[in-house]
Amino acid sequence: MFKNLKLKQKFTIILLVILIFGLSFCGLSLSLILRQNAEREIASTGLLLMETMTSVRQYTNEQIKPELNEKLETEFLPQVIPAYSATEVFNNLRSKEKYGQYFYKEATLNPTNPRDKADDFETEIVEKFRKNRKLKEWQGFRSEPAVDMFYIARPLEITEPSCLECHDTPERAPKTQIKNYGPVGGFGWKLDEIVGAQIISVPASAVIQKANQYSFLIVGIVSIVFVAIILLVNLLLNRQIVRPLKRITRVAEEVSTGHMDVDFEQLSNDEIGNLAKAFKRMKLSLEMAMRRLKRPPGNTNTGNSGNYGNSGNYGNSGNSGY
To answer: Of all residues in the chain, what percent carry a pLDDT higher than 90?
Structure first.
């Protein structure tokens, strides 16, 4: 079937096949690259927020807590707790509409403040850190009912003996702390124990959706450009190859039927022009051959040979003595 198609149709089909496979490959590759870039962008945002919250914890522990420690005997100030400070700072950030879907939690298996209690998903992350002490960070995607989230988690490890003043036993804890939170939660912690995890959650759906939109846009632009190229190639093919070949074919058909008044036009010096030139030489050779065939048999010699053929004396040799 393909061999019965015209040259223009064959080129169009070949270019369309290239277009389909090219766009499929480019679309998949581009989508993968843009998605990876989107994930890196999301991860970069999450890491920046994580480092910020870690800095808040460090600032609270090193500069705020020493200043307010003495007041704990008469009044419990949660501002001296690094987890409380980091959570409150992040909640202030979340109050802005742009960051309303961002989340930060210091998920703890046995927290002092009930709001820090780890849920099932967060408990799994904490257990990963407890089982593998070399694991210092865990990240991935999590589907929420309304949006997909990218999360980054880091272990919360008791590295300072001063932390055990509030989390060793109820007897050692400040009385004001017991008054506010009770003698049950947040006790029994050990030095070098992983008690929870810092978890930052960043909305990913919007960024990935935007990456997909860019991918479709670029593929659409490439498609338009490629279709324009196909149309341009067909136009050039029609003007530079198909039409000259049709002209040569038509002249060759007329010459084959004996019409020698037509001629092959050499409009260019490319392969098509050389083909027309070759046909022109062939036509001249054919004309010379036809002229030779039309000459009488006696005219095959020189110009004076006609006297030889018409020599009456020779032909009437019967009048001789012979």
So the answer is: 22
